[in-house]
Amino acid sequence: EMAAARLSGSENRLVSLPLSRIRVIMKSSPEVSSINQDALFLTAKATELFVQYLATYSYKHGRGKEKNALTYTDLSHTAEECETFQFLADILPKKILASKYLKMLEKEKRDGEVREDHDEGEEEDDEDK
After folding, report:
1. What are phi and psi of 62, to 5 degrees?
2. Which domains occur in the chain, in start order?
3. Which GO biological process annotations does it have (predicted)?
C-alpha cells in the first residue's frame, strides 16, 4: 500500500495542486468510472512535476533570465521549439496582434475559395469523360 492512501490533511501538502479538482478533471473522461486514491495522488504529483519542468525549461531557455521573470512568450516559444513540449503548441500559441490574425483568417478564406473553385472544375472535367 502506498503512502498516498494514508494521507491525512496535513500530509496532503506533498502535492500543491488541489486533489478534488484533479478528481473532477479525471472523472470528466467517459472511460473513468472510479479513481483510486494512489492514482489520484500520483497524477497530481506528476502534473506538478511536469508544470515545474516546463516552467524551469522555459525560464532557462527563454528571455526570463534577462528579466528575472517567466513570461507567456517564453512558454509558447518552448512549446514551438522544443520537441518534448510540441504537443502543447495549440494550448500555448504564439501571441499575435488581432489585426494580423484577422488578415490570416481572410487569407485562409480566400485560399479556401480558390481551392473549392478548382475542385469544382476538376469534377466537371470528370463528367465530360
Report:
1. -100, -160
2. 33-114 (1.10.20.10)
3. chromatin remodeling; DNA-templated DNA replication
